[in-house]
Structure formats: structure tokens, C-alpha cells
């Protein structure tokens, strides 16, 4: 029997978790060939039917996916540079460290650019048909060495149209704004929360935002439109661990509002409303690689035109197979997942009597249990060197690979 633990090292499975971008160990890795196209799930969406013939196989797949999510400290929002993301999986909260470093540098770059643009003398601002823009270059020193240099360009353009009605001389106003940020990390060193452990970043990332808002006072309507794109390739070093993270993201939203007297509120135009967002992560190192994608799409709620309904899709690749996920799994919040298995369909996975606890090497669970389909299958962990025990309909077996 091939040991499951021999097949699922922390990097192999954790790389499928929610995160910011990464790929490849050293400069000789093949990470540049990794695709950033979103993963797709093409398996069964029906509820799985568990039997004596398949319960152990289902348990093995549930274990692998749950371990990937927990080991990667999977978070359910992976904003690119904002609170809660970007993230990468790894030991000793590597993901949290990269997230904090990137978020702080992006926030500083954006703040410096906007502050400089607001206070710059008129002669410093570049004025054109596209509006006013300001470009600044700055450098942030790392807490324990190295630097992050960034360049930001902030652009804003205001518009207004007039008519001949003296009672309403301005019939519409608008504002377009944009921001471009590029950051280069050079041995940028920061401390983890323990203020002792160092994390070092090398590489580049970019973010681009565009936003437009228009008001029509004559027709009492408002329109907003926004886009965002970003990408990153970072080499991350934490102690003896080194990975390269690569990610990409894009988003688009558009909404036209009008005032509804009956509701006494602004309502969306469902025919023109758009909200789509996608994040793609890849990570590799030590010859291993994995991928995770997250997409979200929203429409106007047909029952409430002041609100929207959204559909989220998460797909991870574990062991060469794509799985669709709903819910969350983390070392702290327990397990609350619906896992779609291509061959069998969907199963509901929850923490058992106690939540699974990770082994120090992230290769498995040391203790705790998982419940599948409200106890139809149970998976019990009793040591990092012991095979999990699977129970179903009075049968108890070691988990098979």
C-alpha cells in the first residue's frame, strides 16, 4: 500500500489554497511556463451517492482537498493587496507575511501618489485632454534590510455639461480617475508577527485601477464604471523555504442607477449591470506546483432592484485533478466545505468532534476528525505517522491511496 502521506507534501497540496501569486523555487525553475488561465471544473454537480464500493475513494479525495485548504490557511476573500489577501500558502504563515508586506507597500504607494498630486504646484501637474496626472517615484526600506521601489501615476478628469435652463444651469457632471502602481522588491525584508522571523521578497508587481462616475441631474440618473487589473511574480524566502509566486487578477463593474419613487431609492438597470472578478494563483518550488482560481459574478436581484445576487466559484488543482469548492477550511475556523468530486459529485464536509490539527510539516493532520455528509463517512486522525481511519456503515479501514 502506498502511503497517502508520501503523496501529499505541504507544498503539493497547500499550493491549491486561496492566495496571491507565486511560482517556482530557484531561477532554474520552469515557473515562467505556468499558465495563468483560470481553472475550470467539468465534473459532476449532482449529490454524490456513497456506497461500500466508493466510500474510501471519496474519503481519500476529501482528505486531500481539505488538507490543501487548511495547510494553505485558505481565506475566502483574496483581494489583491487589500485586507485579507493577497495570500500564498506555506509553513509558519508565509501567506500572511507576503500579504502584509504587499498590502503595506501598495497602500504607501497609493497614499504618496494621491498626496503629492493634491499638493503639487500647478506647473508639476501634467494637464491634457485626459485630465490632470501626477507621477511620483518613492522607495520604502525593509524592516530588516532591502527595499521596495515604486512608481505611481494618479490621473483625474472632471466634466460638466450645461443647458439653457437658468433654473438648472448644469445638467450633468462626471469624474474619471485612474491609478497605476508598479513595485519592485529588492531583498525587501520584513518581520513576521513574532518580530524575529524574517521574510525576504524579490520580484515585481503591478496594479491598474480606472473609475468613472457620471450624474445626470435632468433625468435623475447615475452611472459608475470601474476596472482593475494586476499581476505579480515574487520570489519569497522564509528561512530555508523558497517559492516563487505568480498571480493575475482582473475585474470589471458597471452600474446605471435611476430613482424609483415607489421604493424611494436608487435602483439598478438590470440590462446594463456588470460585475465580474477573477483571481488566479500559481505557486511552485522544490519541483512541485499547484494552482487555485477564484471568480465572482453578480446580477441584479430580480426580487429587489436595489440589491444584487452573486455567484462565487473556487476551483483548486490537487494531485492533477480540478475540484470545485464552496465554503471554507482553515486552521482556526474549522472546516465548512462543499467539495465537488469530478467522478462522484458533491459531498458536504465538516469538522468532526474536534477540528483537524495540522502536523508540523504540513503533510497531514495530527489529530481531529472530518465528517462527510453528516456522518455518513468519518475520517479520524491519530498521529502524523499513522494512516487516517475511514468509517462507513459499520466498516473501519485505513485510508487507501
TrEMBL record:
Keyword list, A-Z: Signal
Keyword Signal carried by entry: yes
Residues making up the signal peptide according to the UniProt record: 1-21
Residue spans of biased composition, Acidic residues class: 161-178
Lineage: superkingdom: Bacteria
Region (Disordered) residue spans: 159-178
Keyword Signal assigned: yes
UniProt-recorded name of the protein: Lipoprotein
Species whose genome carries this gene: Thalassolituus pacificus
Amino acid at each position: 500500500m502506498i502511503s497517502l502521506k508520501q503523496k501529499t507534501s505541504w507544498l503539493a497540496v497547500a499550493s491549491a489554497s486561496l492566495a496571491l501569486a507565486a511560482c517556482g523555487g530557484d531561477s532554474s525553475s520552469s515557473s515562467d511556463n505556468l499558465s495563468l488561465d483560470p481553472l475550470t471544473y467539468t465534473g459532476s454537480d449532482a449529490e454524490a451517492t456513497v456506497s461500500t464500493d466508493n466510500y474510501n475513494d471519496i474519503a481519500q479525495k476529501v482528505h486531500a482537498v481539505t488538507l490543501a485548504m487548511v495547510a494553505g490557511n485558505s481565506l475566502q476573500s483574496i483581494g489583491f493587496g487589500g485586507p485579507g489577501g493577497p495570500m500564498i500558502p506555506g509553513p509558519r504563515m508565509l501567506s500572511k507575511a507576503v500579504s502584509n508586506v504587499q498590502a503595506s507597500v501598495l497602500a504607501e504607494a497609493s497614499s504618496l501618489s494621491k498626496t503629492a498630486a493634491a499638493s503639487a504646484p500647478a506647473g508639476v501637474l501634467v494637464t491634457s485632454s485626459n485630465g490632470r496626472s501626477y507621477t511620483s517615484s518613492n522607495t520604502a526600506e525593509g524592516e530588516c534590510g532591502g527595499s521596495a521601489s515604486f512608481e505611481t501615476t494618479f490621473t483625474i478628469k472632471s466634466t460638466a455639461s450645461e443647458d439653457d435652463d437658468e433654473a438648472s444651469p448644469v445638467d450633468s457632471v462626471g469624474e474619471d480617475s485612474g491609478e497605476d502602481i508598479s513595485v519592485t522588491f529588492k531583498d525587501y525584508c520584513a518581520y513576521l508577527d513574532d518580530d524575529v522571523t524574517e521574510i525576504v521578497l524579490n520580484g515585481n508587481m503591478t496594479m491598474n485601477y480606472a473609475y468613472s462616475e457620471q450624474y445626470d441631474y435632468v433625468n435623475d440618473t447615475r452611472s459608475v464604471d470601474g476596472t482593475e487589473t494586476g499581476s505579480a511574480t515574487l520570489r519569497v524566502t522564509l528561512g530555508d523555504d523558497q517559492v516563487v509566486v505568480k498571480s493575475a487578477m482582473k475585474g470589471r463593474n458597471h452600474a446605471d442607477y435611476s430613482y424609483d419613487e415607489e421604493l424611494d431609492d436608487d435602483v439598478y438597470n438590470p440590462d446594463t449591470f456588470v460585475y465580474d472578478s477573477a483571481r488566479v494563483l500559481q505557486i511552485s518550488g522544490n519541483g512541485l506546483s499547484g494552482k487555485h482560481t477564484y471568480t465572482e459574478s453578480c446580477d441584479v436581484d430580480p426580487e429587489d432592484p436595489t440589491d444584487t445576487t452573486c455567484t462565487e466559484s473556487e476551483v483548486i488543482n490537487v494531485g492533477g485533478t480540478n475540484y470545485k469548492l464552496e465554503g471554507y477550511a482553515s486552521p482556526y475556523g474549522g472546516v465548512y466545505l462543499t467539495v465537488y468530486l469530478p467522478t462522484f459529485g458533491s459531498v458536504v464536509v465538516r469538522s468532526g468532534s474536534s477540528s483537524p490539527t495540522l502536523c508540523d510539516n504540513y503533510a497531514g493532520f495530527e489529530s481531529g476528525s472530518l465528517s462527510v455528509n453528516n456522518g455518513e463517512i468519518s475520517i479520524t486522525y491519530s498521529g502524523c505517522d499513522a494512516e487516517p481511519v475511514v468509517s462507513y456503515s459499520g466498516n473501519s479501514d485505513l485510508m487507501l491511496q
